Amino acid sequence: MSSSHIRNFSIIAHIDHGKSTLADRFLEITGILKPGSGKEQFLDSMDIERERGITIKSHPVTIHYRYKDEGVFTLNLLDTPGHVDFTYEVSRSLAACEGVLLLIDASQGIEAQTLSNFYMALDHDLVIIPVINKIDLPAADILNTKNQITNDLGFREDEILLVSAKEGTGVHNVLNAVVERIPPPRVDPDSPLRALIFDSHFDNYRGVVVSVRIFSGKIKSEDKIRLMSGNVEYYVEEIGIFRPDMVKKQRILSGEVGYIIAGIKDIANTRVGDTITSSSRGADEPLPGYKDVKPMVYSSMYPVAADDYEELAKALDKLKLNDASFIYEIESSSALGFGFRCGFLGLLHLEVVQERLEREFGLSLVITAPSVEYKVYFKDETEKVIDNPVHFPGPGEFDYAEEPFVLASIVTPESYIGNIMKIAIERFGIQKAINYIGEKRVEIEYEMPLSEIIYDFHDRLKSVSRGYASLDYDYLDHRKAFLVRLDILVSGKQVDALSQIVRKERAFARGREIIKALKTEIPRQLFKIPIQAAIGGQIIARETISSVGKNVIEKCYGGDITRKRKLLEKQKEGKKRMKKVGNVDIPQSAFMSVLKSR
C-alpha cells in the first residue's frame, strides 16, 4: 500500500471521557468487532481497566477504512493510557503519530489531563482534531464546551466534531477527518533502519513482543537488529501488525506500525522510547526523546502469612515481565518479616499492582505508607538518595535534606476555588498562576511537595469540589526542606514498617493521628500497651491501650482485707512479668488505618 494511504494517530483524553468506547466504534465500523458483541472497551484487556474505566496499557490496532472514492486507507490507532502516572508512555505513543484526536466530555468540559495532553501534542508538532463526546447525555453542555475549545485552545468552531461514542453518532465523520486532516507519514526507505519502541508486552511462549513505528528503512524476518540504549542484538523471528490480534507479515516499511518478535526474554531490554536499528550499517543516532523512567512513589509489600513469601516473589517476577516500569528488591522488617520494597510511577500504579497481585495470584498483602525519593546531604559533603524511611538519618546526623516538588495543575468550577486554595495551602502549596477557562472554569497552578500529593490529596480535592475538580502534575525539582523521621513505638519497640519521613512542622500532628488510629486497631492484652510517636530520642505523642481486667478477688466473699491485697499484688507482679516477655501482634488493619489516618 502507498504511504499516502497510511495514517498514524492516537486518541488523547482525560480519564473517563470515552476514549475506549470511541475506539470500539472504530473497530465496529471497520469490521474488526461485530456490533452488539457485548464486549465493551475491547482494547482494555484487563478486568481492572474495565472496572475502573481507565486505560492502563497501550493497545495499538491497525484498521482498514474505505474513504469515499479514494480507496482503502490504513489507519494505525495507537491507544494511550489516560492517567498522569503514565505520561511518559503517552508521550512515546504521540512521538509515533502524525496526529491526534483530542476527546472532550460534553458534560465535563476541559479538565487537567485534557490540557496536559493538548500541550504534549503541540510539543510533538502534531495535527490535533478536537472532538466533543457524550453529546447524548442530558447534562451535555455543548455550547459551553465549544466556547472553551475555541477560546482557550485556539481552534475554530468549524474544526470541532460532535460525537456520541456510545450511540455511534458522528463516528464516521471522525474517521473521515482522520483521513482528511492528518498527513501521511514521511517515508525514508533508503536510510538505515530506525524504529521507535512505544510499547511492549511479554508472551509466555514467544518472549517479548515489541510494538514499533518505523521512521526510516525497513525490517523483515531474520534481520539482525540492535537495541540502541542497551546495545544488545537479536535476530528477528517474526514481524506483523495488530488487528488487534497479531497478524504475520513479510516486512514492515518506513511509515508503518507493527510488532517485532526476536526471542527477547527480558522485557527490561525493550524500554519504551528506545530505538531499534540494524546490527550492520545501522543508524548513528537514536530517535530523540528517550529517557529512563524512574519510579516516583515507593512502598513495601509484605505477605500477611509468612508462608506466602515465596508465592509473592514468584508473582512479582511474573508481573515484572509485563511492566518494565515496576521495580522491586527484597526487604525485611522486624514487625512484618520478609517482603519487598517496590517502586511505582504513582499511586494509581501502586493500586493497580496491588490489585493484580491480590486478584490474579490470590495473595493477601500488607502495604506500608507510600514514600517518595529524598536527597540527604551530610556534613562531609556526601550525598545519599533515600526512598525508605527506615534508612533516613536521625536529627543531627546530616546537614540538610531535599524533597521532590511538582507543578500541580487543578481545573475546577470557579465556585470551589476557595476550598481548593485552602487544602493546597495546608499542603505547603505555592500558587503560581490562575487562568480562567471559559466563563465558569478555572485552572490553578501550584508548586507542591510530591509527598503531600501521594496520600489523600486527590480524594480531598474531589471531596471539596463535589467531584468536579481534576488534577495533573509534573515533576519540577528537589528543594530543601526541614525533614525528620517519625518513628512509632509499640510497647517500647520500634515498628519499622510504620516509620515515615515528614516535615518537622507536621510531625507532631501526624504522630498524634497515627497513634490514635493504632489505639483503635490493636487488640487489648493482659498488660497495658503504650503507643508512642518519636523523633530521634524525643517522644512527641503517646496513647496507652488499657489492659484486659480480670477480677481476682471475685471469689472472696468476706474475710480479712489482707487476703484481697495479697491476690491483687500477685496479679500486679504477673502483669509486670508478662509486659517484659509478651509480644504485641499488630493486625493488618492497623497498618491500613495509618494510611487512612492522614
Mind explaining what this structure looks like?
It is a single chain. It is built from 14 helices and 31 strands. The protein is of the alpha+beta class and 598 residues long. The chain has five domains: 3-181, P-loop containing nucleotide triphosphate hydrolases (Rossmann fold, 3-Layer(aba) Sandwich), CATH 3.40.50.300; 194-278, Elongation Factor Tu (Ef-tu), domain 3 (Beta Barrel); 297-367, Alpha-Beta Plaits (2-Layer Sandwich); 399-481, Alpha-Beta Plaits (2-Layer Sandwich); 485-596, 2-Layer Sandwich (Alpha-Beta Plaits), CATH 3.30.70. It has an eight-stranded antiparallel beta sheet. The chain is globular and about 110 Å long. Residues 578-582 have low confidence and may be disordered.
Summarize the structure.
Helix content is 26%, strand content 33%. By secondary structure, the protein is of the alpha+beta class.
Going by CATH, the homologous superfamily of the largest domain would be P-loop containing nucleotide triphosphate hydrolases
Helix count, DSSP H or I runs of 4 or more residues: 14
Q: What gyration radius follows from the Cα positions, in whole Å?
A: 29 Å
Largest sheet, described in full? 8 strands, antiparallel
| Record field, number of beta strands | 31
Proportion of helical residues: 25-40%
CATH architecture verdict of the largest domain: 3-Layer(aba) Sandwich
The count of domains is: 5
Q: What is the residue-averaged pLDDT?
A: 82
Shape: globular
By CATH, the topology of the largest domain is Rossmann fold
End-to-end Cα distance, whole Å, is 58 Å
Uncertain stretches of 5 or more adjacent residues? 578-582
State the assembly state of the protein chains.
Answer: single chain
Query: What strand order characterises the main sheet?
Result: 11-10-16-7-8-15-12-13
Share in β-strands:
25-35%
CATH class of the largest domain: Alpha Beta
**Class from secondary-structure proportions:** alpha+beta
